[in-house]
Amino acid sequence: MIQRPLSLYALCGSLRQASTSRRLLEALRAASPDGVSIEICDLIGDLPIFNPDSEGEKTPAIVTAFAAKIRDADGLIVSCPEYAHGIPGGFKNALDWLVSRDEVPFKPLMVAHASHRGDLVLEQLDEVLRTMSLRIVQEAFLRVPIAGKSEETQAAILMEARENGALRASLSRFVQAIAADR
Questions:
Q1: Is 171 helix (H, G, I), strand (E, B) or coil?
Q2: What angle do CA 52, 136, 82 make, to 5 degrees?
Q3: 11 has which bridge partners?
Q4: Terminus of the chain with fewer CB atoms < 10 Å: N or C?
Q5: Are 113 and 142 in contact (CB under 8 A)?
Q6: Is 92 a domain residue?
């Protein structure tokens, strides 16, 4: 039996193009094994501020497109920095748009963290994502501490994580968890 390729959708909690969270997601995408594709979401910064009055028939087209990407993905990867001891506003807004929709319940999710600190945001994300009924695959959790380091040092750390198999190992555990549910 031929398995179809696995499609993962990565959500970055930082809107900065040069953020460490995004760099980690890009490194994961580069390390993904054959048969696994990772698309990094570029819609979060363009989503309007969540308003329940704009749901249903009034849902903005960009929100519908964002939700469709979530629905079509076999799993989600989240990488999110901690801003002022919490979830960045833009990222929380994106999650709020998904709360009452049917795309996320029981969708497998992997967390990739780009800092040696930021445990408060990890706790908050865990609470929010579980409340949304996402299935967080704990054994796939990845922490690669590159935040606060120079670009050269970040690149070296990410290259080492790729070469020593840390990136692929987390992805493999995530892919195995998804395959177990198929």
A1: helix
A2: 70
A3: 78
A4: N
A5: yes
A6: yes
State which H helix or E strand residue 165 sits in.
none
Using the structure block, give the residue that is written with the tokens 């990407």: 69
What residues form DSSP beta bridges with 10? 40, 77
Total tally of structural domains belonging to the chain: 1
Residue 1: inside a domain: no
Give the pLDDT confidence of 17-30 residue by residue, as tens digits. 889 999 999 999 99
- Residue 159's CATH number: 3.40.50.360
For residue range 138-177, list pLDDT tens digits in order: 999 999 999 999 999 999 999 999 999 999 999 999 999 9
Task: Classify 36 in phi/psi space as left (phi over 0), alpha (psi -120 to 50) or beta.
Answer: beta
